[in-house]
Amino acid sequence: MTAGRLIVWRHGRTEWNLQDKIQGQADIPLDDVGVAQARAAALRLASLAPTRLFSSDLQRAVATAGELAALTGLKIEYDEALREINVDDWAGMTMEELAAIHPEAAARIRSGEPQRRGTAGETVEEVAERFAPALARAVEHGEPSDTVVVTTHGLAARVGICLFLGIPKAHWPAFGGLSNCNWISLLPGRHGWRIEEWNAGSLPEPVMSDDPQR
Predict the structure, then answer these.
(1) Phi and psi angles of residue 163, each rounded to the nearest 5 degrees, phi first
(2) Is there a catalytic annotation at residue 140?
(3) How far apart are the C-alpha atoms of 11 and 180, rounded to whole Å?
(4) Per-residue pLDDT, 17
(5) How many angstroms from the chain centroid is the CA of residue 114?
(6) Per the residue annotation, which of 67, 84, 122, 196 is the catalytic one?
(7) Which InterPro entries match (predicted)?
(8) Rounded to whole angstroms, how far apart are CA atoms 193 and 189?
């Protein structure tokens, strides 16, 4: 059996988000706006009656998940595989600063070519390969009535979900980033998991369609 809905939720805003700095796994807290975003989004997600709550162990994700835990009484289950990409010594730079110091690496990132972040960080492909199995673990023992919420980070969520869904890497750039405290909603269908909503900030609504998805 598997869960009936999977919500992958990005954390609220941090000061580094506001300053457009590369965060990676630097453990940056939510700012005041981020806390308010998490509180407001948690109210909406709580109405879906989530049954399990997973989170990255970085504090910006932990604090975001904590707002939903406080409303639902769910225990947060932590998984390091849900962390953001490791950017090593690039953490704290803006993309403009990175381009000035490492122009070739910045150009490869912008063009979508493989590029390890920092001296000893991760590639996008490596992030996806650790993230997608974490999603599979989160839903594998669920029931059709379950809603599982995974609180995480923008890049990791985007590429990890693409791999989880079996989307070829060449098409990953077609899936845009997540705004702070927005989420992706996935549903199980006849041929595997499918996207219900992407970069959503409001509750999913039933699809009235002649195309049966389940």
Answers:
(1) -70, -40
(2) no
(3) 6
(4) 96
(5) 20
(6) 84
(7) His_Pase_superF_clade-1, His_PPase_superfam, PGM_Phosphatase
(8) 6
